[in-house]
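Intended use. Records like the one below are meant for learning the mapping from a protein sequence to its folded structure. Do not use them to infer anything beyond what is encoded.
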Amino acid sequence: MDTAARPPTLIAFAGSLRRESHQRRLLQHVAAGLSPGCHVAFLEPDPLRLPMFNQDLEGDPAIRAELVALHERVATADGMLIASPEYNGGVAPYLKNTIDWLSRLPRIDPDYADRWALRHKPVLLLSASTGWSGGLLGLQSTRALFAYVGALVHAETICVAHADHWQTPEGYGFEPDFEAHVRRVAQDFVDLASALRKPRADA
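Structure written out for the chain above:
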């Protein structure tokens, strides 16, 4: 089967640690509407036990094992859905810390010297906020962060303003025009990730 024709495997990552965060709800809403066969794996915070970045801890075997496992998950995914809140107009600390650790593995382990998990990785940025901006200000610095580590950040974003207004027991209930926008942007990203995915040995 043509590699580009098969739906991709995506990782969904919420930059907020809160279980019922608007970011997690938004990712679930978007994932539920993706094309059939598109697999979305959520990167949950509980299994990800990376401390605040500290080079003194890079030699810790437990931390190295966590980092290698994270690297493999990201490296084998065809793209990433990143939903992040804005913290004082900037990148969420949990997201920034995770990327800081991930970017270090090729520098501290010779086995990964030429294996940068985020290099050329398609990334779609999303945000939901109870404020008027929908987290757009924070996504500006988030975009710069992912571009710096070599990711291919999708040109469009999905930003939900006044998220509490749209919240329902099932997730979100947007107006038809905005829902259409969300679906179009998400599907455009799926198409991009599909087109850029690399052939695998078992394909």
